[in-house]
Amino acid sequence: MSDPATGLNGDAPQLTHFRDGQPRMVDVSAKAPSTRTARAEAWVFLPPESRAALLAGQTPKGDPLGVARLAGLVGSKRTADLIFLCHPIPVTGAEVDVSLADAGIHITATVRTTAPTGVEMEALTAVTVAALNVYDMLKATSKAIEIGGVRLLSKTGGKSGDYQAPESLPRP
């Protein structure tokens, strides 16, 4: 029988963000800390004029790739401030790679922790914040810049086990 005061069903926590129809933060205090890693990606698709400005080093606000790297790192550490009901966790390591590709700018983030809950949201937030910063840095070159392809690539550790994304997902 479930205990509404603790959210526990026997010894297993109820991992839901709702109780009695109301939002709540899941209690992960009974979960043991473990090493967890998550990787995510995002794409910033550039129209020709934005790509040309970037390649020529003529971006009005400076280096969008460098700013995006730093913004992604900060975003990974501020996830609990941005995502409702997300646990604040100690990010023990984070890497953000921002590179120019034929389709635009490819952003990846790898985030690590030793905590009772995972870092998927931190990795996804890192790439999203980095992509938004690229848009901000390049929007003077074109408003037609698109952000997309945000997805979890992999995760290791934790009770739910490991995950590896398929090479590519079918697109609508």
List keywords for this structure.
172 residues, alpha+beta, 3-stranded antiparallel sheet, 10 strands, elongated, disordered N terminus, MoaC_bact/euk, MoaC_sf, lyase
* Radius of gyration using CA atoms only: 19 Å
Please tell me the overall pLDDT. Answer: 87
Q: Give the end-to-end Cα distance, rounded to a whole number of Å.
A: 43 Å
Output the strand order for the largest sheet.
7-8-6-9-10
Q: What proportion of the residues is helical, as a percent range?
A: 25-40%
Strand coverage percent: 25-35%
> Shape, please?
elongated
Biggest sheet overview: 5 strands, antiparallel
Discrete helix count: 4
Number of strands: 10
Describe the structure concisely for a colleague:
By secondary structure, the chain is an alpha+beta fold. It contains 4 helices and 10 strands; from the N terminus they run E-E-E-E-E-E-H-H-H-E-E-H-E-E.
Description:
This protein is α+β, with helices and mostly antiparallel strands and 172 residues long. It contains four helices and ten strands, in the order E-E-E-E-E-E-H-H-H-E-E-H-E-E. It has helices at 48-56, 64-77, 79-82, 120-138; strands at 2-3, 8-9, 12-13, 18-19, 22-23, 34-45, 91-101, 104-115, 146-156, 163-164. It has a five-stranded antiparallel beta sheet with strand order 7-8-6-9-10, with helices on one face. Strands 1-2-3 form a three-stranded antiparallel beta sheet, with no helix packed on it. Helix 2 (64-77) runs antiparallel to helix 4 (120-138). The termini are far apart. It catalyses: (8S)-3',8-cyclo-7,8-dihydroguanosine 5'-triphosphate = cyclic pyranopterin phosphate + diphosphate. It comes from Deinococcus wulumuqiensis. One of its GO terms (molecular function) is cyclic pyranopterin monophosphate synthase activity. Residues 1-22 are annotated as: Disordered. Pathway: Cofactor biosynthesis; molybdopterin biosynthesis.
